[in-house]
């Protein structure tokens, strides 16, 4: 495979990532955008991050984009959930113009907060042909109180996704952005495009009940896969990623 550095501008911020292109085939390729979640304080020893996942899907013939949302990794800016949505929209537009990407086969796979953003973006952009949502919250109720929002801001500063001391300028506006992206309000706009919800029974960050609530909104129009014994970091859960890969290959082959 060939790995290419890529970047684009979103609200004037540099959003940076990597493209993984199959080297033993000719394009245009089915295209997968992987969307990370809100970082934890420390990675587990079994976690090589998203490059490992990108390599896995690229070996199966997908052009894969991984990138850092604003505030994360080597991208600029501070965390803002609506800003993350704009980052993804700009990335989607960037890929849409690439000759290597098959415009009719652009898929999203998001994790946790990145899954919530993916649901919001897929609902609003028909260019997204299918979505895999991994451990998405149904809503951000924990942030609905002033104390909850302050605690989250402290976490965001601790993990480095809020870097500016004067950010956010308005806590009320920051709070409203979480309400705007609320997955329960958007998920039923995705079908009849294929949609897979994956969640682990031992998720101690986003309880599995969130998956069931989302499923109720799209019952009969999507697929729900509950992984017994899996935790929150589904990208390191083999059963979860095997399910996602098999499902995407089936969708890509026209069997979904």
Secondary structural class: alpha/beta
Number of helical stretches of at least 4 residues: 7
Order of strands across the main sheet: 1-2-4-3-5-6-7-8
State the helicity in percent bands: 25-40%
How many domains is the backbone divided into?
1
How would you sum up the global shape? globular
Question: Describe the biggest sheet?
Answer: 8 strands, mixed
CATH fold annotation: Rossmann fold
Stretches with pLDDT under 50, minimum 5 residues:
none
CATH class category: Alpha Beta
DSSP E strands, number = 8
Radius of gyration, whole Å: 17 Å
Report, as a whole number of angstroms, the end-to-end distance.
27 Å
Q: How much beta, percentage-wise?
A: 15-25%
Reading the helices and strands in chain order gives EEEHEHEHEHHEHEH
Q: Mean pLDDT, rounded to whole units?
A: 93
**CATH-assigned homologous superfamily:** Alpha/Beta hydrolase fold, catalytic domain
Describe this structure in words.
This protein is an alpha/beta fold and 256 residues long. It has seven helices and eight strands; from the N terminus they run βββαβαβαβααβαβα. The longest helix has 16 residues, at 81-96. It has a single domain (2-252), classed as Rossmann fold, CATH 3.40.50. The chain has an eight-stranded mixed beta sheet, with helices on both faces. Helix 2 (81-96) crosses helix 3 (113-124). Strand 5 (101-111), helix 3 (113-124) and strand 6 (128-134) form a beta-alpha-beta unit. The chain has helices at residues 50-59, 81-96, 113-124, 146-159, 171-181, 209-217, 238-252; strands at residues 2-10, 13-21, 29-35, 63-67, 101-111, 128-134, 195-200, 223-227.
């Amino acid at each position: 495979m060939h790995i290419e550095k890529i970047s684009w501008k979103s609200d004037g911020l540099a959003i940076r990532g990597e493209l993984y292109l199959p080297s033993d085939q000719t394009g245009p390729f089915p295209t997968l955008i992987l969307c990370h979640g809100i970082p934890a304080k420390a990675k587990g020893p079994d976690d090589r991050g998203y490059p490992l996942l990108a390599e896995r899907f690229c070996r199966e013939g997908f052009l894969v984009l991984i990138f850092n949302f604003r505030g994360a990794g080597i991208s600029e800016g501070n965390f803002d959930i609506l800003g993350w949505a704009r980052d993804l929209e700009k990335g989607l537009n960037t890929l849409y113009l690439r000759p290597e990407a098959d415009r009719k086969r652009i898929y999203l796979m998001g994790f946790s907060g990145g899954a919530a953003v993916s649901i919001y973006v897929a609902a609003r952009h028909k260019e997204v042909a299918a979505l895999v949502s991994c451990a998405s919250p149904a809503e951000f109720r924990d942030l609905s109180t002033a104390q909850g929002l302050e605690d989250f801001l402290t976490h965001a500063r601790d993990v480095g996704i809020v870097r500016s001391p004067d950010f956010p300028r308005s806590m009320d506006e920051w709070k409203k952005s979480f309400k705007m992206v609320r997955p329960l309000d958007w998920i039923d706009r995705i079908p009849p495009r294929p949609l897979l919800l994956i969640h682990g029974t031992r998720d101690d960050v986003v309880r599995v009940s969130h998956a069931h609530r989302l499923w109720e909104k799209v019952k009969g129009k999507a697929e729900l896969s509950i992984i017994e014994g899996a935790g929150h970091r589904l990208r390191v859960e083999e059963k979860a990623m095997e399910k996602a890969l098999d499902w995407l290959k089936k969708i890509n082959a026209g069997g979904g």
